[in-house]
Amino acid sequence: MISLGIVGTGRLGGVLARLARDAGLEVRTVSSSDSPAALADAASSDVVVLALPLRRLRELDPAPFAGRVVVDAMNHVPLWDGPAPDVEAAPSSSEYVQGYLRCARLVKTLNHLGADELDDDAAPPGTPGRRAVGVAGDDAEAVRTVMALVERLGFDAVPAGPLAAGVLLEPRSDVFNGLYDRDEMAALFQRSR
Ligand SMILES: NC(=O)c1ccc[n+]([C@@H]2O[C@H](COP(=O)([O-])OP(=O)(O)OC[C@H]3O[C@@H](n4cnc5c(N)ncnc54)[C@H](OP(=O)(O)O)[C@@H]3O)[C@@H](O)[C@H]2O)c1
What we know:
Layout: E1 3-7, H1 11-22, E2 26-30, H2 36-43, E3 47-50, E4 69-72, H3 78-81, H4 85-89, H5 93-100, E5 105-108, H6 115-121, E6 132-137, H7 140-153, E7 156-161, H8 174-177, H9 182-192
Parallel strand pairs: 1-2, 1-3, 3-4, 4-5, 6-7
Antiparallel strand pairs: 5-6
This protein binds NADP nicotinamide-adenine-dinucleotide phosphate.
């Protein structure tokens, strides 16, 4: 993988862009004020990360995401984001996202650490106690690609299961509220099955 698109240039998008550039990736970012052509350019990257507020997802044209490996790094926290009955009615927020971006190869990850934690805790492979990041998705090849991205950004990537297992990474989950290394997170996912 050599290019990373990032939709959203706020706190999360900014940190991810920096980590990715440090890792030698070509980064294309887009925010709400950019043109549809800029969105299409970011979405044509090897992997594209959604780092915008979930409530604004439907502002995006789904067409450029068709067939693309797309990371859902978004969360819905009613207290901060306000009520979103359509999201809350879905079995997991990533399945809601997949329902909108129907033809995207969606993978849930990079949502359960704060942007500051991503910045502070990124570490080279093999660093003792390197922090783990969970990855959930239905498309095995897309999951492998995204796990390689997570590793390159500085974290041990741990498969959580299918996209529906993205609930294990959502706010209120143990993963969201804890700090785990690879073995600890793998054990936690094992217990949750
Ligand atoms: N902050 C964290 O620590 C953190 C950690 C993990 C996950 N997350 C999740 O990441 C997402 C973003 O959080 P954040 O804290 O980074 O938010 P933020 O600082 O408010 O930034 C949001 C970004 O999304 C952009 N955006 C909004 N609508 C857009 C659209 N239609 N097209 C393209 N870009 C659009 C905004 O652009 P404009 O400014 O031009 O509107 C802005 O750059 C949320 O879902 C959050 O739950 C955040």
